[in-house]
Design brief:
The chain is flat and about 100 Å long. The protein is built from 21 helices and 26 strands. α5 runs antiparallel to α6, α12 packs across α14 and α13 packs parallel to α16. β1, α1 and β2 form a beta-alpha-beta unit. It starts with 6 loop residues before the first strand and ends with a strand. The chain is α+β, with helices and mostly antiparallel strands.
Amino acid sequence: MLQNPKRYTITAALPYTNGPIHIGHLAGVYVPSDIYSRYLRLQGRDVLFVCGSDEHGVAISMKAKKEGITPQEVIDKYDRIIRKSFSDFGISFDNYSRTSAKIHHDTASEFFTTLYEKGDFIEQVTEQLYDAKADQFLADRFVIGTCPKCGNEEAYGDQCEKCGSTLNATDLINPKSTITGETPIMKSTKHWFLPLDRYEDFLKEWILVGHKNDWKPNVYGQVKSWIDGGLEPRAVTRDLDWGIDVPVPGAEGKKLYVWFDAPIGYISSTKEWALREGKDWEPYWKDQDTKLVHFIGKDNIVFHCIIFPAMLKAEGSYILPDNVPANEFLNLEGNKLSTSKNWAVWLHEYLEEFPNQQDVLRYALTSNAPETKDNDFTWKDFQARNNNELVAIYGNFINRVVVLTNKYYSGIVPQPNDLSEVDEATLTELKAYPAVISSSIERYRFREALGELMNVARLGNKYLADEEPWKVIKDNPERVQTQMYVALQIAAALSSLCEPFLPFTATKLSKILKIESPLSWSTISENSDLIVAGHQIGEAELLFSKIEDEEIQKQIDKLEATKTANKAENKVVEPQKEAIQFDDFAKMDLRVGTILEATKMPKANKLLILKVDTGIDVRTIVSGIAESFKPEDIIGKKVTVLVNLAPRNLRGVESQGMILMTTNAEEKLVFVNPDADASNGETIN
């Protein structure tokens, strides 16, 4: 681990422009990387925080085919949405680029050419999956099949999203083309491969020995598993019609594999920033005094810890990442987040539905961050964290301090008198927090760091609750001056300490306290007069608002509607039964009927005893629908009845017919109803 670096290059995984940003992306990558970058800037460090839209690869082509538009239209649409979402949410990139930009095409092509001319690639003719009907080779994401590791029947050709295994399309059992649904054939094609096996010793020494004690166990473990399993050459080109052309002779119609070109996007984004700012980009990627940190999700560990470092090592002039603090996955209401299934909380929609509450989501995602294991986001937990923590602890403390200061001193910070032991202990404890929070952030423990920030607010609440200035003011106003002075120091410290985590709150609180420039953390650690006597603060303003049950229920209902739509879309229709003759159908006597009475069958959970007017007679029918309908809700219901079904004795009751039912997308029973104006006894034919 690099100690006291001159500068930091921080990268956040390039989001695919095949859809908007959702909370899984935020929790896994963008919130932690933003916390880290903001923190380092507050410490006065030289920080470059880069990202950009990943606009090549099969995911884009698939989206374009699905929406009936061109890949360029897809990337332009989602690049706009993603950029605005990040900006509105306060993700503080120094540069956000695009891999479709000329500077990126040039950088990636140059990188490939350098390795090609050094002889670092293997050129091979291999057998690849080919869709004869579509007349094209199938890139990884155009193939779906059974995962050989876990048996998931919906694994993609590059990865199983159920068990997380990285795959080759040819590994899949029973592969199918996602374009036509056909079983692909094997066909020869030429590609260039990066021989990862050549870098096995280097990777063992660099990671398994060099980073054994400072990389997260989940990252180290996955890398070790890959290396222990033996590395093999990895293709860096693909047969595609969308992407960066392979810049060598004999490569017509082939593109750079997206996982070769995408991480180079960090370098091209840096170049773009340097050109705009009039800086030299090379020290941020080639100086040994630069600390390079990649923020990614766990599905990208192999690419950022094995493949990209091997590429950098092969090129020879670049530094290697100091750390890759990948997070695990965030689930949503107990189910895996899915862009294709719309099972997500989309950032741009959240910002519309919860205006000016960016920090509430930042707080909820950080306090529940999947740093060491998969975690679950629920709307009820989101509400509880806002109401019980941000409102009740942080917001409550600030509100009391500001209200009392305005009430007692017209908003002017009072002159303190002699400090009591409690005052001294409180201010001493306050001074310790910057170092405690820093320690957690430096070790990429952002959830822990946020907990310590909230402990500062708890310190303030406890101090006020114990000291009770609202009672002391009657008999000892001089003592209250000191109490409020101490409480205001805690409030001032919070305005700076919370900035990496809750930047909008930090700005709001600084305006309330009229602190024009952020306090340095070293100042908070060393001084007790963060906000001096005689300083004028502003009026009280709520930092956070309570989120009501109705708002949360609206979000839960929205997800339920998505679940229903997915079931309807994916509902498997049973195949047609064996053909029958008209005479077979004519044997069934189907009539319109009306339910007159309905009662539960004693000691039976599923059965209702119905009295049905069939137009022929009023008869008893026993129906297994008790778990779906209350008896009182179906009286008077028009139904379709099979009246000539042979009677059957069910629990001592003779059933003389059958009610026709089906199921909806939610797998709930529904009646096959005749029109309302059909009379009882009318035949159905």
